[in-house]
């Protein structure tokens, strides 16, 4: 790979911004991005998968588990994602505008994963030290919960930098003519990492939880450091001046952000529909207790069943992507919303043992795979290309706000009914209002041109947030529509 120069014309070259790649250079970029994606997916899996087990081990309530595992990260996402995204768009440095936001937080992410591994030991030591040296009488459970919650907050704070910016790096270093193939590979790698997690790792959590946290922390740190050092960004023009009409300073910028993203009901309905559907999965963190305590399955058995779901997802992603291209991702998403409710109801009524769990979770994985294939293309097809990152952060803000409220309520609901089976009922109900909202979006989509002539509703301002992303998204829109 070469940056900021023209290569000899002996072989075909590919360009994105000021970067120029040979075929081998392009293969190298794909390798490092996908290797980083594998380790990134494992890193993002370990905390929500294992922290509920650690919290349950110290007798935390379902409300507390929902608050720590989902609501607090959602609150940080709601606040930080728009700030970090805009900061990265406008940053200019020796290593580019994306790599610094991936490089510097990664050591802290690994640190908090390792601290979480020792959270129970650290909490017990702090409680004893406070009693012996300060004369304080503190609840051991309360101190351990505080330590684990602090580790989650620290982990999520630094992970927000990576999770917000990592996806923008693609548009800056991957040529737009390869973007669709790269996204398909990314989804396959992410699903493959889920299979590795469920088949090989999750079953060991009961006896080797510390080693899992430490091992994935070290693996992620090593992989992302190498990726950041091996991938080079090109040069960018100076960030555009903020247009007139923003008012005074940060307050005016915030007003413009909300005005552009939330003035048109079409976009608000899109944000609500997608977010309400995601809320259905807010009870997923509790299902491990249903499988373990109601079906009496071991963690190894649970991981084995889940791994088959990952295999099915990989098999379905390519045909699902082809169907999205043929029918349009919005239509496919509408179908997945309806079928997801039905699949969750079947799980609620008919899962009673390991065999029925395998059968009905595999059935539920079919709409989940189509959802995975249609979600990103639906964003690309419907949102304004020149403000893609901005509108994605607005959707993340809405989803995070709803998650903050819904997940502790889901925990209270499960505490009230006293049966984790009802987590499936929760997953069956919430896609219904999401489906209604998306049907209204579909009506608006047809009014704005439909599959052949769709033009996103205009936005008042003329600011362009992310120039390379806009170019990549424009190419994606042509392929999708």
Question: What do these coordinates show?
Answer:
The protein has 2 domains: 195 residues, MFS general substrate transporter like domains (Growth Hormone, Chain: A, Up-down Bundle), CATH 1.20.1250; 221 residues, MFS general substrate transporter like domains (Growth Hormone, Chain: A). It contains 19 helices and 3 strands. A 3-stranded antiparallel β-sheet has the order 1-3-2. Helix 1 packs antiparallel against helix 2 and helix 10 crosses helix 15. The longest helix is centred in the N-terminal third of the chain and has 35 residues. The two termini are 32 Å apart. The N terminus and C terminus are likely disordered.
Offer a concise description of the structure.
With 481 residues, the protein is mainly α. 78% of the residues lie in helices and 2% in strands. The protein has helices at 23-57, 62-90, 99-103, 106-117, 119-134, 140-173, 179-201, 205-230, 249-262, 265-279, 284-294, 299-327, 329-350, 354-382, 388-417, 422-429, 431-447, 450-453, 467-480, and strands spanning 2-3, 14-16, 19-21.
As for the number of domains, it is 2
If helices are DSSP runs of H or I spanning 4 or more residues, what is the number of helices?
19
Principal-axis shape: globular
**CATH C-level category of the largest domain:** Mainly Alpha
- Write down how many β-strands occur, each being a DSSP E stretch of 2 or more residues: 3
Considering DSSP H and I runs of 4 or more, what fraction of the residues is helical? over 70%
Largest sheet: 3 strands, antiparallel
**Residues in β-strands, percent:** under 5%
CATH superfamily of the largest domain: MFS general substrate transporter like domains
Q: From the alpha carbons, calculate the radius of gyration and give it in angstroms.
A: 23 Å
Q: Residue-averaged pLDDT, rounded?
A: 82
CATH architecture group name of the largest domain: Up-down Bundle
